[in-house]
# Entry
Amino acid sequence: MTASPELAVSSGKQTLDFDSLVVLLEQIFVRHGTSMDVARTLAQNCAGAERDGAHSHGVFRIPGYVSTLRSGWVNGQAVPVVEDVASGFVRVDADNGFAQPALAAARALLVEKARSAGIAVLAIRNSHHFAALWPDVEPFAYEGLVALSVVNSMTCVVPHGADRPLFGTNPIAFAAPRADGDPIVFDLATSAIAHGDVQIAARKGERLPAGMGVDSLGQPTQDPKAILEGGALLPFGGHKGSALSMMVELLAAALTGGNFSFEFDWSNHPGAKTPWTGQLLIVIDPSKAAGQGFAERSQELVRQMHSVGLKRLPGDRRHHQRAKSAANGIELDVQTLKELRELAGG
Ligand code: NDP
Ligand code: PYC
# Structure
């Protein structure tokens, strides 16, 4: 495992509104070889992560996107090919481009199928995903749909009971509407910690909690650099997270026609950071379900969780941060902003 190039940190902060950050990021993507369509989609995604405080997949990722585009590993001009294969199944060949523009290209057909059949699957292959997964599912829930997505990444996780890494960090994201509030959304890596957070800890010189990873000799370590330099991560929850990670490999790669996390070789593309794999989405129209409205039922579940003392739902932290960013702007490190502007050529 290798660390990504980094944006420097300083104590000074500056705020930017969401649209200005999107424009800045679009300039960076286009300057490094993407089409305007791809730039727009990735910039919205990355700025949204930064706005919501999902820092491991916000502007922190920009140098990795840039070095990947420079290396020729990913097709920034990709034109996804959407295939309508069955009443509830859509396939997309992402043309060795990013997964989010492939999702955008297939989205209308996917929603149409989910609403008519009650459920629809989107299988994206030949794609790169370098982002948080919740932005791929959350919008469906705002439209009253339930969505689940999985994506596999790059070999850096040791399956439970094994000696060497094989799986990716393989996140699972889920979104469901609820009657009186933001959708219920969770998005979690099936590794004990996301690779991006290991990089951030290494850069800050922080130690990790126990149980996250092993060093190059397979010994437990709390040193993020030892994990990044020849070591590996562990699944969360032992055999349980490991089984979920295996499921993600099967759904995101075997079912879509994409690469398993261990199947691609980027060694001839120095600077390449984006996993070349696949992604699966399942979208359900809950209006087809029996009984009381789904959104009321999910609201009731939330009410009951709060009644037993729950203070924080998954997604709450992000939504609070989103509201804060809307009120005060998105806070960025001054040095980071300077480097982003340099990458944009301004
Ligand atoms: P976290 O462990 O930070 O969070 C996982 C989920 O749990 C989130 O929905 C979070 O909500 C929620 N949560 C966290 N703490 C609590 C708590 N105390 N109480 C209730 N809910 C809580 O995420 P990960 O580190 O696992 O993943 C980080 C990101 O990395 C994800 O966005 C993931 O998609 C991305 N990733 C992307 C990969 C790729 O290949 N593209 C690979 C691996 C990871 P909240 O957001 O509100 O904090
Ligand atoms: O944080 O594990 C991660 C990750 C892998 C690919 C994109 N993010």
User: Anything to note?
Assistant: The domain at 192-234 is CATH 3.30.60.50 (Wheat Germ Agglutinin (Isolectin 2); domain 1).
